[in-house]
């Protein structure tokens, strides 16, 4: 008991003798606690966006199959997450989008999966250039565009909509470009235009894939604009973490 009384007396003496230093010490402690709290909140929100991307990417709810087009919604949380956390968040969520795309190649193989998957080193290049790079750039470009557009008050519909348009077109253009430049023979065979001239191949790409990409871009523009406007205060709060 006497030992603890001595500690209390010494503490009181230092508080009265060096009040400025004691005050600075507690202020530093408060700053450290606030920083730690912000980091925990940021990690929690990152985990939330990653979970949404995984859910949309692996389950059927992330895709809308129409008679004339196939639309994916997986890029929506990537774009919104990039708007909320900046380019670093865009890179993280874009990489997660690429990882989901790779997982889907094994779960639901399609024409792209038959092209990029394999055991050779060149297949590894295709996975990077077709599955990961377009998705990473989707998050990066949409985040940069969102931050570059001025926003008035809580009305950020325009910034989020343009970010959605840029992000969606980035994904479409770089996926098609990766297949065209790195897997031309396999891709044209999958499209049924093998042996035709490059002009005919490009016309087919613009007609079939380009049409689907434009519908997807229109949906991303509208959804990102509406979501961005609805959660504008939330986006502002996240940008300060």
What features would you describe in this structure?
- By secondary structure, the protein is mostly helical.
- The chain has a single domain, classed as Arp2/3 complex 21 kDa subunit ARPC3 (Orthogonal Bundle).
- The chain is built from nine helices and two strands, in the order ααββααααααα.
- The protein has helices spanning 2-17, 19-58, 75-107, 111-116, 121-148, 157-182, 184-191, 198-230, 232-239; strands at residues 63-65, 70-72.
- Helix 3 (75-107) packs parallel to helix 6 and helix 3 (75-107) crosses helix 9 (232-239).
- It is globular, with a radius of gyration of 25 Å.
- 32% of the residues are buried.
- The model is unreliable at 2-15 and 29-34 (pLDDT under 50).
State the major sheet.
2 strands, antiparallel
Question: How large is the radius of gyration?
Answer: 25 Å
Q: Average pLDDT value?
A: 80
Report the end-to-end length measured between terminal Cα atoms.
45 Å
Q: What are the segments in which pLDDT stays under 50 over at least 5 consecutive residues?
A: 2-15, 29-34
Look at the structure and give the CATH class. Mainly Alpha
Shape descriptor reads globular
Q: How many helices?
A: 9
Order of helices and strands: HHEEHHHHHHH
Which structural class do you get from the secondary structure elements?
mainly alpha
**Widest beta sheet: strand line-up:** 1-2
The number of distinct β-strands equals: 2
Count of spatially separate domains? 1
- What is the CATH topology? Arp2/3 complex 21 kDa subunit ARPC3
Beta-strand level of the residues, as a percent range? under 5%
Give the name of the CATH architecture: Orthogonal Bundle
């Amino acid at each position: 008991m006497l030992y603890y009384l001595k500690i209390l007396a010494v503490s009181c003496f230092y508080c009265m003798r060096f009040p400025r230093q004691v005050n600075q010490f507690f202020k530093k402690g408060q700053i450290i606690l606030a920083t730690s709290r912000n980091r925990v909140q940021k990690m929690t929100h990152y985990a939330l966006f990653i979970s949404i991307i995984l859910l949309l990417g692996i389950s059927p709810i992330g895709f809308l199959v129409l008679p004339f087009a196939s639309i994916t919604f997986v890029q929506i949380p990537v774009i919104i997450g990039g708007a909320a956390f900046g380019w670093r968040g865009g890179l993280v969520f874009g990489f997660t989008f690429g990882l989901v795309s790779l997982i889907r190649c094994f779960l639901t193989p399609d024409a792209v999966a038959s092209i990029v998957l394999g055991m050779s080193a060149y297949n590894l290049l295709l996975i990077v250039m077709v599955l990961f790079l377009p998705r990473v750039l989707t998050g990066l470009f949409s985040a940069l565009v969102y931050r570059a557009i001025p926003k008035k008050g809580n009305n950020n519909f325009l910034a989020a909509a343009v970010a959605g348009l840029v992000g969606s077109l980035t994904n479409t253009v770089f996926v098609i470009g990766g297949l065209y430049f790195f897997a031309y023979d396999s891709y044209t065979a999958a499209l049924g235009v093998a042996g035709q001239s490059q002009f005919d191949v490009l016309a087919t790409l613009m007609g079939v894939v380009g049409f689907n990409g434009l519908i997807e871009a229109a949906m991303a523009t509208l959804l990102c604009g509406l979501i961005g406007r609805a959660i504008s205060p939330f986006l502002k709060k996240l940008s300060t973490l």
